[in-house]
């Protein structure tokens, strides 16, 4: 049976491997992650009476660390996780 220390070690090594492999990710996957982060940060500019309004910040109190799980679900689950299976 796998104990918790070994499970923690395996999880840490998996995350380290994923972080190191970001250099080898295709450009389109990196672009998808970047655009997802930008879309979460800034609202699309909207038309008000025929004029484009200034873009507004969607989540002004959110840091990148708060938005990372959303990006992970967008990029990691559909693209990277199937390669690990």
Rounded mean pLDDT is 75
Rg (CA only): 18 Å
- Could you name the ranges where pLDDT drops below 50 across 5 or more consecutive residues? none
- How much helix is in the residues? 55-70%
Q: Major sheet: size, sense and barrel closure?
A: 2 strands, antiparallel
**Distance between the amino and carboxyl termini:** 21 Å
Strand content: under 5%
**Spatial order of strands in the largest sheet:** 1-2
Which class best fits the helix and strand makeup?
A: mainly alpha
Count of alpha and pi helical runs: 3
The domain tally reads: 1
Which word captures the global form?
A: globular
Write down the secondary-structure element order: HHEEH
The number of strands is 2
Model description:
This protein is mainly alpha-helical and 85 residues long. It has one domain. The protein contains 3 helices and 2 strands. A hairpin with a 2-residue loop joins β1 and β2. It is globular.
Give a quick rundown of the structure.
This protein has 85 residues and is mostly helical. 62% of the residues lie in helices and 5% in strands. It has one domain.
Which descriptors would you attach to this protein?
85 residues; 3 helices; globular
Topology diagram in text:
Blueprint: H1 4-20, H2 27-41, E1 47-48, E2 51-52, H3 64-84
Antiparallel strand pairs: 1-2
Helix pairs in contact: 2-3
């Amino acid at each position: 049976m796998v104990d918790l220390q070994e499970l923690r070690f395996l999880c840490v090594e998996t995350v380290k491997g994923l972080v190191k492999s970001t250099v080898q990710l295709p450009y389109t996957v990196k672009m998808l992650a970047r655009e997802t982060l930008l879309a979460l940060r800034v609202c699309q500019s909207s038309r008000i009476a025929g004029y484009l309004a200034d873009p507004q910040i969607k989540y002004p109190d959110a840091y990148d660390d708060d938005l990372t799980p959303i990006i992970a679900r967008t990029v990691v689950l559909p693209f990277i996780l199937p390669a690990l299976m």
